[in-house]
Every structure is written in structure tokens, then in C-alpha cells.
Specification:
four-stranded antiparallel sheet; 1 helix; 4 strands; 44% strand; flat
Length: 75
Amino acid sequence: MSDNKEFNFNIEKDYGSFGEGTWQYHLTKTSWQGRPAKLDVRQWNEDMSQMGKGVTLTDADAFELMTLLEDALTE
């Protein structure tokens, strides 16, 4: 078992933010640990040097979530 705890990510695109306060949610396209980039929603501090817990979605998962959100918001 490796003790290597190196954690790396690359934000390929920041689509924008939402929410209030100094920590805002950002929708990004992010590559984690050198893997292909996926959509990611999580809180970031103002200069995006620290992150909170979030959700990473494949494009297929994002489309399913979009459908659920549309249904929920148009009830």
C-alpha cells in the first residue's frame, strides 16, 4: 500500500459561480488525479485556493440531473 497522499486536479474551465458569501459554489470542468475532466460542483473560497466537498458528474449524469431539476422547478 502506498503512503503517497499527493492530490492533484486541474480546472479546465470555470463556467461560473452561484450562492452568497465568501465561499461560493462553482460549476467547473475539472480533471482529478490526471483522469478525464468531468463536471464538478463545489464550494471554493474567493481565490479558489481552497475547496469544500462537492459533486463530480459525468455528462450523462449531468443531463439526468438537469431533467430532475427542470421537473422540480416547474411543479
